[in-house]
Amino acid sequence: MGPYDEMRAPLGEVRPHYAALQARLSTLSAAELADRQKTQERFFLLQGITFTVYGAESSTERIIPTDILPRIIPAAEWSRIEAGLTQRLRALNMFLADIYSEQQILMDGVVPRELVMQAPSYRREMQNLYVPHNAYANVCGSDLIRQENGEFAVLEDNLRVPSGVSYMLANREASKRVFPGTFRAAGVRAIDRYPDLLLTTLKSMAADWRPNPQVVVLTPGVYNSAYYEHAYLARLMGVPLVEGRDLVVHDNMVYMRTTTGLRRIDVIYRRVDDDFIDPLTFRRDSSLGAAGLFNAYRAGNVVICNAPGTGVADDKAVYAYVPEIIRYYLGEDAILPNIETYLCREPAQLSHVLANLDKLVVKAVGASGGYGMLVGPHSTKAQRDAFADALRADPSNYIAQPTIQLSTAPCLIDGAVEPRHVDLRPFILSGEKIVVTPGALTRVALKKGSLVVNSSQGGGSKDTWVLSDGKGDRS
């Protein structure tokens, strides 16, 4: 059985929810499609949606790789995704609230204590601190894949500082320009309220003690690869974009410097990793945060979103226990399943992984962005030997999973429509309530045959059309 084809059924017929797009494509020549691709690229350039490639002699600004053909998801499928993601984030927030307080799940042996306590992203400083609504992960971007049987599964959760939502929004704006008639007729659910929903979520974290909380976006600065997103979201929410040097902490209150003096801050949507938030509490050499910021947080005078220490819940080893975590806190089976995962910290599972390195994907538990991993079927013997040594030296730092055949979706490649492998990153907001945005970032492995969708590894993205009720459900 090959990978699931998003557009075509096994016998080659077009799935109903793709019929309108296919009909439109059949009326367009290669030259017309190329012209629409250029229209999208011009839009991205004018919006500043670029990234810089640094070379030995010069640096080049390039368009973020995008594909003009949308990925389409019918309403019934999305309803299941929405329910599964809501369930999952509710349980993970409960897990975080528990491990940073009573630790009942650890005492009951559902999750091994040492797995949590030794996780690189576990923060002892968060122990017994109050987090409004127990919403530790206010913005979550879980990565989903469609399995060969057509069902969606969760590949990993991103609860620290997940990125990509700006590309979801920009892809939508471009998509409306490239296929305006098809878009209007398809009944696509709107995502343009995401900035308002994000701002409402952030404000809800301080609403109990401040009637109109001041929100800011904290960025590492212009040289960060996601800086465009930080500035974009701040502008759409109508809130200040600040760097650590713009912040002042006095008497456990956080202020930002403005041309009219200091202004108090209530909620910080931070796009800075835990280690760099506060040099007095975490890394002493950090200049990206503000000295004393964590003490102000501990005193309850400012809210940091996402809360420090949320990364322990998306640790790749903890991931293997999420179905049990859901069952423990909610008394329910997971709506969206996990991918089979081998914990190398377990001797029997380590032996299996070492014997099958040529068939498995091995990942370091704390790595992200496609780094620190071995894709067995595409690896050399020297690479497998090096990973085998690393596994034996530090087995707790690794997990392994079967090599997954990501589903394929149609993409415009050099003027022709060809299938490419894709995954799906929906965005879930959690504050006073949990909201799943009715859209997602579809990431694309643009190289033929590649399974690597990460933008840092040469991947791209495309718009995701979630159809309204009754649209395209017959598949």
UniProtKB/TrEMBL annotation:
It holds the Pfam family CP_ATPgrasp_2. Residues 70-445 form the Circularly permuted ATP-grasp type domain. Residues 454-475 are annotated as: Disordered. PANTHER family: BLR5612 PROTEIN, SLL1039 PROTEIN. This is Circularly permuted type 2 ATP-grasp protein.
